[in-house]
Amino acid sequence: MESGLSNLLSVSIDFGTSHLLFPTIIHWIMAGLFLVILVTKVVPFLAAVKRGERTLPIVGEPMDAYRFFGTLVLIVAYFYLMDVVGNLFPYTGYGFLFVSMPFVLIMSLMYMHEWTKKAVIIAVINAIVAPGLAWFILAKLFTITLP
Amino acid sequence: MEFLSLLDVTFFLLAGFGALIGIIFGAIPGMTATMAVAVCLPLTYALGLHHGLALLLGLYVGGISGGMVPAVLLNIPGTPSSITTTFDGYPMARKGEGEKALRVCVIASVIGGLISAAVLFLFAPMLADFSIKFSYVEKFLIILLALSVIASLSSSMLVGIFSGVIGIWLSLIGDYSISDGGNGKTRLMADFMEPYLFEGFSLLPVLIGIFGISTILLEAEKGVKSELSHERVKFGKGSGFSLGLFKGRLTNLVRSSFIGTFVGMLPGVGGSAASVLAYTQEKNLARDSSQMGKGAPQGLIASESANNALTGGALIPLLSLGIPGDSTTAVLIGAFTLQGIQVGPLFIPENANTWYIMMTALVFANVVMFFLMFFAIKHIAKVVMVPKHILYPIIVMMCVVGAYAINYGIMFDVWTLLIFGILGYLIQKVGLEVAPLIIGFILGSQAEVYFVKSLESFGTLSIFFTKSPIAVVLWLLILASVAFSIAMSLKNRKRDREEQIG
Amino acid sequence: MTLSKKTLAGLGSAAVMASMTFGAGIAMAQDGQLRGNIRVVIGSTSTGGDTYQNSSIVVDKLAEHLDLNMKVDAVGASSAFRTLDRDARGNTLMIFHDQSYLGHLYGVEGYENIFEKYTIGPTVAINPGNAYLVPKDSPYETLDEVIAAVGDGETVRVAIQPGGVSEIGFSALKNAVSIEHPGQEDNLVAVNTGSQSDKNQQLFDDQVDMIHGSVQANEQYTRLAEDDQKAMRFVWLTARQDTIEQAPEEGLGKTSREQLLEYVEPNVHVTMGDDETFTFDKEFFFLYNKDMDPGIVEQIDEALTEIYEEGEIQETQKNSFFIPNFKPSDEASEYLNEKMSRYEEIIDNIK
């Protein structure tokens, strides 16, 4: 009996496939939990949606589409251009510096609700000073590699 | 006391200056203590060993402490180990108690730092001998214990665990790293991802993406209302802070400090696990932990005293085994090798002067950190007064710098920010929880290595129960933690039901 | 007062445009020379390790000599190769050691044949510290006893990190057993482990009988009292005898050069057949993008030749327990290629 138990508990691991052992365990746990959640949470929730008591997340909610998608597009453009521009001046951090400035400015303006002269001037100054300072201290003083 | 003659004004100035720069690095989202130490490492060559160490230890202490600032005020952990600080710090900041929260954090930090320094000084070689009693099996159980917090962290236990498991899954993407003893093969990804994801997602970009970028996306969705950054934080006399907050919290403070020191000294477990474990234990052991996660100072005390206690703890294996206890001490080891000094089991007896010098720097840096932070808090807390349209672009920019710089310049880490920003947004939208997910992510890959390696070495599952008395104790703690979570969840459900009826 | 959003958005994109044109101007400069900021990526992620230390010694000298901004970035092997792949302009260089081709020989994912895919640059130094250790109270006094014991059918477990520098000594040992005691080589078992701390831990736990380590990381452990659980003893340094002979006389820590010489050939003999003894020196060398201008290869060769003639760099390297070992690119490439084929044989033999 005892040997039966220790046989049950003994495992031999093939080093060549040992990278799959833990992920497999996690997959099973994840699948099990997902099923339970599906039954206890998702199905009742969808039923409530159908009855009109609840709304679906994201699609059923009010959203400031201009700012939300604007943010996404802006971040993608920022990351992409930073790499492109940075490649023109290898390892100087100029890619970061020159692309951060318009990014900070455009994002500021996009989030600003009332475009007063004062607020815009502050945003412009910020867009020049903040990336400039970050670049100078980190890339120049501390010689951190920046895009 | 020969070493006293080695102390000069420059030494103290460097330690203090290090603490200041460290705080600034820690306080900027995306910049970490590790980075601060790494960028200043080349300077130490010119400074000489003792002055160099003063600077680096200052940076280390300052950097770890500075992480509390964005954690409390912006809900972005400044360093990975301040993640549990966000759980209670941010809710407090939203209630207008940001300044109070920060003061609690600073005091907890300095006490944690000093306790661990004392432990380091008095018991380093002895504790190093104790720490090598922890093999793969015991380390796996420690990780499991830390993971058990995810069950009690969220309002629904099921959702919390599920989120945590997703986090573990995400951490497994990439190769089963050879440097951890794996076979270097990749899994959970398609071929086209291999050039980018060979080593998986890296922790810091994931962390600041999921906390920082997703917060900004959630705000953008709501239109970034023109109100000030958060509900106003009260200033001046009304900070509401008094030492009375620490009344009855002494056990928590001391316990968390010891947990931090202890976790710090286990090589390979290190870093973020310390504050998570301290937070778990406070939640399990405190008489009343119902407010934790909703803005309870006791959560801050546990988290911050543990993460500062990490500093002394992580130095124990470094100085008495030659093995770094966390990522920052891994960089610190370079300061010694650059000067041609070997760290190992004989370091302390053979370099007594350097050892005393380091202790002095560590204690002094903690004191400087305390005064700098405690009196600057009033001004630091004003960061939330900055309008969002100015603050957010800067946060994104600094997150980019941090993500890019953490692995010394990798562009994919910047894209990771965006990927996890969007993921974090979706997760919160569908009702999953970020905190357990990120804890799962932090601990997942270590759990894998220790689990698989234990089985490889011993070939039987029973080893997890029979390896050593330490393993048995750890199991008892895990069981207690799980039982506690279940009890809590039942109690909550009962209360909810009563409220619904009432 | 409000401003038009369009104007400002336009202003932003104009700035991007402007910076782009500005950039194009700078990227064009004279050919065949290093220019601008140079980044040297290394195959290790650690800034406390030997690769970083050695690279920063060399790169600092080179930067000074060429009057350029050069910086060492510890990005790790996979990222370093990828970064190097993308930049043929010479702004990215790489420094790594024998792992770069051993990884390929052992079939580790992410490693390709560097002799085909890259240009091999000059070698700069050797880390002579590659070592194997046993517990101080081990029954095995010497490596010969280990080989004999394995030949007698005893199982000896060795903790290594698979797929590279840490494994090559183990493979050679296994090969030696199969030559001297055919059929017994499977008694030498590799226990795949990660970092140095993991390997040490395996030894403390009695999970292995021997570990791979280094003089630098383990020297202090060899000086602990025998009753200390952590005490270890060197049994083998894989370096060549004349490599160790070039080390400073005082050796490392409190272990002198003379003591270290006890653990290298010919005192320790790991046969490769035909009276040949296996040795392994961990050598650091440059790797370049295949399409990089040959003028730059020459420029770096020349600069390093001059630096090594000055003789200062050798002192710095020796102080950090590196053995200076400069070979210009052509020589280095041929030498390393030959070195690889020798190890390839061993790995094939024991497959």
TrEMBL record, chain A:
Keywords linked to the UniProt accession: Membrane, Transmembrane, Transmembrane helix
Residues annotated as transmembrane: 20-43, 64-81, 93-112, 119-138
Top-level taxon of the source organism: Bacteria
Protein's name according to its UniProt entry: Tripartite tricarboxylate transporter
Species of the source: Halomonas rhizosphaerae
UniProtKB/TrEMBL annotation, chain B:
UniProt-listed InterPro entries: DUF112_TM (IPR002823)
Pfam family, one: TctA
Positions of the DUF112 domain: 13-439
Entry keyword set: Membrane, Transmembrane, Transmembrane helix
Keyword Transmembrane helix attributed: yes
Membrane-spanning intervals of the chain: 12-41, 53-73, 101-128, 140-170, 196-218, 257-279, 355-377, 389-406, 472-490
Protein name: Tripartite tricarboxylate transporter permease
Source organism per UniProt: Halomonas rhizosphaerae
Automatic annotation (TrEMBL), chain C:
Keywords: Signal
Protein name: ABC transporter substrate-binding protein
InterPro entries given in the database record: Bug_dom1
Origin species: Halomonas rhizosphaerae
ATP-binding among keywords: no
SUPFAM superfamilies referenced in this protein's UniProt entry, alphabetically: Periplasmic binding protein-like II
Signal peptide location: 1-29
Gene3D superfamilies: Bordetella uptake gene, domain 1, Periplasmic binding protein-like II
